[in-house]
Amino acid sequence: MNMASFTKLVLFSVCLSSFFTPGTAVPLRMRRDAASVTAAMEASKAALTQNAQQDAYIFDLTTSLNPTASTITTLPTVPANCAIYNGPDGECPTYFVASSVTYADCADAYTICQCSTANMSLSTAVDRLGRVPIGLRRYVATVALLGGDETRAYTLTTGDIHIFGDPQVDTWVHEAGHAYDFASGSPFSGTSEWLGAIKSDTCVPDKYSATSAGENFAQQIVMKVYSMTHNNTLPAGFAPDCMSHQLEYMNGLFLFNQNTLFGNTCAIEGSEPGARHTTAPLVLPNVLPLPPPPAPVPTSISNQQSTPVNSESTTGAPAQGPSAARKDNAAVALPFRHPRLMGFSTLLLAIWFSW
């Protein structure tokens, strides 16, 4: 083989190998124009027709996720994105107190605005937000703590989360999932790949998941986090077979890299765009092992029988779908999984032979 042929072979191999390397496949999500993004957002809001496996999520992630050390400083003024919700007819009818919260795994501080009528204490909110894995928490913007008789939450496209009542950690993970979905301006939950995965399946995790593709996406994130902290099993009461395409899609997200999701820094290279906290701390904290799963151990992914699960209500409640049994939680890169890749690879091969 002469040098020219060898060079062509090396170039072609490098290009083609990126499509076949295990653990690198991710859902294709191209930057779209404003009209297509708006259409995708609308598509993600439509109710789903798939059956709900359970009425709601009933598990709590609190004991499955480690807390994160933090420092809290009271801010002299309330930021505008909180202040606009203050007033007699606003979500906070009295007044806000704003705090800056810096976690040990990120130098970029979080802002938490607590209404004087909020049900949740600031220390509880800091603890629950700190239990959201850093790979996901880095997409959260400002948090507003509010009062009310109903426990609920919602997330704005800016990544701001509004918490009412006293929701548990699964709700915080769910809302962080929405922030992650919205972060790039081109939501995963509105892509043809995600909508196609849902359409190819016959079920979703729970009734809240069935309200829309967007809520199903956030619910699936909660269940994926549960699975990764429970030896890659699903909660009792959930079977993977009827939602296998949704689970495969989740497995393809860079977010679910075990080392970075549960790592010790918000500065993660190669991650999906739009993270709002990305500056590494001056001193990296030790990476703590995840707490052991509580007994009884959930049924294996390959042998699922079940019971219900609990979900909060509102434009961003808790919980999400199961995860696959791969311990590295990376994507399964199947040959020519996408037709576009197949066409591109064929074109490269043709150019090589005609060169």
TrEMBL record:
Compositional bias ranges of the Polar residues kind: 299-317
Biased composition (Pro residues): 288-297
Secretion signal span: 1-25
Record keywords, A-Z: Signal
Keyword flag Endoplasmic reticulum: no
Region feature Disordered, mapped onto this chain: 287-326
The protein's name in its UniProt record: Conidiation-specific protein 13
Originating species: Collybia nuda
Top-level taxonomy: Eukaryota, Fungi, Dikarya, Basidiomycota, Agaricomycotina
